[in-house]
Design goal:
Blueprint (H helix, E strand, L loop, with lengths): L2 E6 L5 H13 L2 E4 L5 H4 L4 E9 L2 E2 L1 H9 L7 E8 L8 H9 L3 E9 L2 E6 L2 E9 L6 H15 L2
Parallel strand pairs: 1-2, 1-3, 3-5, 5-6
Antiparallel strand pairs: 3-4, 7-8
The protein binds flavin mononucleotide.
């Protein structure tokens, strides 16, 4: 089974850490959203879509990409995120897009991610105090690996 994980990790690289942990278990190709090609994605049997959360939703780059995919009936997909809250309710827009493409929905994972900086164009603003410092930590990454292992049985 061919698997790939497409991710956008703009703020701290938090979601990329989770994506890497899952990719090792799934033997999946890691594809930053900027490098994703629709004509390549359609050949994967399972796709994971991961994102940080901005203003309550996954980054638009990732939901936009999923929305451009053709009918993906017969292919599996899962979604994941890191966020200040680490709340799966923030997946809604991405999940809707995945379902609208006809994917067989395989599951979702989220954990908290450090919130310590904000990037605006070429500038980075560092916050005085970080929220969720050090997250995703080893425990979060282990949970991500367990989630990925369970996907192998689906
Ligand atoms: C400007 C800004 C807005 C954010 N909005 C939310 C939010 O609405 N909900 C949430 O749970 N986390 C929010 N976060 C936290 C990020 O989603 C979190 O740091 C995430 O791990 C970033 O992932 P990344 O490093 O992969 O981009 C926000 C962070 C920033 C800097």
């Amino acid at each position: 089974m061919k698997r790939a994980i497409v991710y956008e990790s703009l703020s701290n690289g938090n979601t990329e850490k989770v994506a890497r942990a899952m990719a090792t278990v799934l033997d999946a190709k890691l594809i930053p959203v900027k490098e994703a090609r629709l004509e390549e994605l359609i050949y994967y049997d399972m796709l994971g879509f991961g994102s940080g959360i901005f203003a309550g939703s996954p980054y638009r780059s990732i939901t936009g990409l999923v929305g451009k995919l053709p009918d993906m009936k017969g292919h599996k997909a899962f979604v994941f995120s890191t966020g200040g809250e680490g709340n799966p309710k923030h997946h809604r827009a991405l999940k809707e897009k995945v379902l609208s493409r006809g994917f067989d929905f395989a599951g979702e994972f989220c954990c908290k991610g450090e919130v310590s900086k904000m990037k605006i164009l070429f500038w980075t603003i560092n916050f005085k105090e970080a929220t969720n410092p050090g997250q995703p930590n080893e425990e979060d990454l282990e949970n991500a690996r367990i989630f990925a292992k369970n996907l192998l049985n689906k």
